[in-house]
Prior knowledge:
The complex is a heterodimer.
Chain A (H helix, E strand, L loop, with lengths): L3 H4 L4 H8 L3 H23 L1 H18 L7 H19 L10 H9 L5 H15 L2 H12 L4 H8 L3 H18 L8
Helix pairs in contact in A: 2-3, 3-4, 3-5, 3-8, 4-5, 5-9, 6-7, 8-10
Chain B lengths: L1 H16 L4 H7 L4 H15 L8 H13 L8 H10 L1 H15 L18 H13 L5 H24 L4 H18 L4 H27 L3 H27 L14 H4 L3 H8 L7 H6 L6
Helix pairs in contact in B: 1-3, 4-6, 6-7, 8-9, 8-10, 9-10, 9-11, 10-11, 11-13
Amino acid sequence: MPTAKTTAESIEPWLGGAREKDPEALSKLCAYCYPMILRFMHYRVGADRAGDLAGEVILRVMHSIDKQHGRFEPWLFRIARNVIIDSARYNRARPESELTDDMAENLTDGKKTSEAAGVRLDVQAALSEASEEHREFLTLKFVQGLTNSEIGEITGQSANALRAMQFRALKAMRDNMKPERMCQ
Amino acid sequence: MSRDIETILDHCIEEMQAGRSMDALLEEHPDMADKLRPLLEVVDGLQTLPDPPLVIGDLMSALTRTVNAQDPPQRERPRSKVAWFSHPILMRVAAGFALVFALGLGSTVASANTVPGDFLYPVKRLVEKVRLVFSVNNNEAELRITFSEERFAEGLKKYYQDGVVDDALFKQMLEEAKLALDEALELPPEEQTTLISRVGYLAAHQKNVIETMSQSASPATKKALEPFAEMCGRRMRWMEGMMRDAQMASPTCPNCSQSGLERAGSTDNARDSNTDSPRRSMGEWMQMCPNWN
């Protein structure tokens, strides 16, 4: 599955065609963006809503690709961020930070997994319990592999603010994780 | 102190992402190692979270639901609505996705019977390309065979509908079959044999149908169809030779014990032209694939 880091340069040849709404280029762009956005949404809002919201992002990308300029990934994740914000406004009654059924199922399955997998599931559970702000940062930075500078373009925060948030978010994650899983 | 650890943590994360080990980094900061280690372990855990399962149907249905939503959660809805429906390609894509969903994913879709020039034809091709990009293992070769069949069916439909031989469709039909073989060569021998046989049968079928069409066609049409029938025939003979050299068993009819391609009439010429030739590798055969160029 592509991450922002591994394939950022590989979309350049298609962007021109996609801006002209060429179906071939649009399909490649769609195929590049969708797994990345799905992964982001999966850890940002949960598995049950990830497909819907990722689809909405792709639709907006296809709709506004002719207006895209500057770095692609920050632009893409700004759209993803707006989709989440709009969706939260639309579905105010549905809390976003609940542990999703899918994640809960994973945790139950985790009984039979190794210690390493147990740690991973703890990370997943702790991420789902993190605040909206922290989860957004952690997903962009560590799940998607964006740099602080790219995240700054998306959220509008300064480098210092992001460094401080990084520390707070990781500390909160660690506090949320089972102590026996962590190395002492 | 707090500012220091934030900066050092950020530096350690950058270094870890560049490939340095956690232990090496902690050795550089022994006074903060106890505080840094648990945080870096969380970073490590986050970076190794698994990918969610990727199902192309999710993409299609999600797009469709979004397009069909009566009150979509779009901030710029009034402006975007005008722009959206003013754009023919996007409107067709949306309509296509909507129809894919409405009629059931994986089943026959509304755009499936379209031919070049139809409103939904670009949607059909876009969906094909997306399926191809998301294909796994031997699926790409299978898809290429399906696309060759599709181009052939479109060529036939166009011919019977408008009386026109669409050169581009027949060439794409042959090109897709060639791409299926390219993909097949990457597969394990057993799957390779099955797929190569299928492409052989496809070429035989296409040749037979084109020849049947020619029988009742005008001289001009006959002339237009001739190169495609000939190319299918050359492909059949070429594949027969390839399968023989690779010691692949051509599928055998249980009633007459003739191989499938023998029944399709390809083997005589293949034997004539290849019996005395040295055995070639699959790669060499692929380089000899009869093509337009």
